[in-house]
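# step 3/5: fold
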Amino acid sequence: MILPVYLYGTPVLREETEDIDKDYPELRQLVDDMYETMYHSDGVGLAAPQIGRSISVIVIDGNPVADHFPECRDMKLTLINPEMEVIEDMAPVTREEGCLSLPGLSEPVKRVEHVRLNWLDEDFTEHEREFTGFAARLIQHEYDHLLGTVYTDRVAPIRKQLIRNKLNNIAKGKVKCEYRTKSAGK
């Protein structure tokens, strides 16, 4: 089922999430719905707060961007209760980022290019892996949602001033989307 994507300004996007256990109700269906919602919205990642759930679950599929970022090829992951460690062995890189919860907006964000992630998959099997390049950026962007952070929190203060009206309009639901949304103003 395609779920509405919660827009900037909805309180759930500012909450820190809770870890879940294997008894979380209808987890498999939730994960399937998250992937369906992400694909329908042309996203490459979606965190549970973006569908109104304050739980530590992320889905990612980097394949749509793999032609430009080969490190994202075959990067289809369900991340439950992830723990991320930043590895600062490379200089941070600034790239444009967008977000399904902030439609029509993209801003330059500086991020490290190397992270280590521990997580559970949908079978609650434990994994650990390092990610570099754009794959590391995808992980960090979605992981931020679990902390109640959106990417615009990481832009330069002058940029935040320049986009304030756009953020206010998104929060009020005054934005056009090709996918279902839920705003604080609705």
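# step 4/5: annotate
The longest strand covers residues 76-86.
# step 5/5: archive (pending)
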